[in-house]
Amino acid sequence: QVQLVESGGGSVQPGGSLRLSCAASGFTLDYYAIGWFRQAPGKEREGVSCISTSDGSTYYADSLQGRFTISRDNAKNTVYLQMNSLKPEDTAVYYCNDYFNPQGWGQGTQVTVSS
Q1: What sign results for the dihedral spanned by CA atoms 82, 88, 92, 98?
Q2: What is the mean pLDDT, run by run of 10 residues, along the chain of 115 residues?
Q3: Cα Rg, the chain, nearest whole Å
């Protein structure tokens, strides 16, 4: 069964950090440009970051201003999103998927940034 499972979310204060994980099963991640998306309450889902398969190059949404870092561990079939200097506007459900051809969405992982 092809599946992506997100984890690592939680509640943190502004300025805090979290590391999200996206574990794949049923297929090999390194054939895909896997990325992170997020959906805040009342807003559309938006792309946050992705990492390519070919050369490991990365993309980040302008709004992140260098606070997030995406990485992948092909041996563990997992993609990570390190989130630093979190802001209340980062509060959302975070999802991972094939960035350019997203398929079925998983449950996501909730990130809440609040004082």
Answers
A1: negative
A2: 90 98 84 91 96 86 92 91 97 95 92 97
A3: 13
- Sign for the pseudo-dihedral over CA of 83, 37, 62, 69: positive
Beta-carbon contacts of residue 25 (< 8 Å; ≥ 6 apart): 1, 2, 3, 5, 77
pLDDT at 1: 72
Looking at residue 8, the DSSP 8-state letter turns out to be -
The tokens describing 31, both together, are: 């054939």
Q: Rounded distance, CA 38 to CA 65, Å?
A: 16
CA–CA dist 33, 16 (Å, integer): 27
Q: How far apart are CA 64 and CA 66, in angstroms?
A: 6
